[in-house]
Amino acid sequence: MSPGWLGQLGLVYVKGVNLFETLMRNLMFLNDRAELWEKGRPNWELEEPRSEERTEIVCPGNYAELLTMQCRRIWLERENEKVVRYTLLGGDFFDKKNAFAEPMTLWGLRKQTKESPECYLPQKHDMEKMLWREFSSIIGDGKHIPGVVQWNGYLQRCGFLKKKEIRMGIATSNAQDMVAAVLDSLDIRSYFGVVATACEVAAGKPAPDIYLKVAADLGVHPEKCLVFEDVPAGILAGKRAGMRVGAVEDVFSLSMIEEKKELADFYIRDYRELIQGAR
Question: Are 76 and 40 a contacting pair, CB within 8 Å?
């Protein structure tokens, strides 16, 4: 059987600090139009089970059916209360063009051609990459982003995800336009009191200037700051600013793991390790 979009393309989902939070962050109560889904009707409630192979259907308008559309695919035949044979059906499918109801898929714009009109199609997502390196594909053109990203933005706007008040800032070497696009598309700008880019200081990383600026603008002493960095130059910048620095694992800097561990105060592979105590 085919693994489908999620198996072939890589899905987008949000990890919580525990299983419950992960489920709540990904169990969306709103569809891609920010409206409540139609009344839920999982596949096992259909009046008749599917009996045909690989049938094209209309994209489900309720979340329960969307998540269970590949259920009830094994037909068991019994004789004298024993299973004597079975039939395995290939899953149903719906047109992937502009199928924005699928909430964990990235969308790429396909320009209009003589043969077909302009439309959005699923695009590949590399789950091994650090999230910030995939921002450009996640936010796309800003018009169609994964439903799970929209849902978490909604939760943030409503204040459901706010935790203990900790002043946070961004000190980045990326361009201001890119940073602004990411913050606005993911609706997380309000979580950061200060956003500074290298063009605002005299010297970029590994010089400490940008971290000292962010700390000053936040009104926090450098020794009270905790920095997360994925490359040696950034780790050096944080240490030279007199801050505690945690190195974060990243597929683009796997060859630098030992150097990062030597420079940083601690090393993590996943931010959830902070809850258990960084190693």
Answer: no
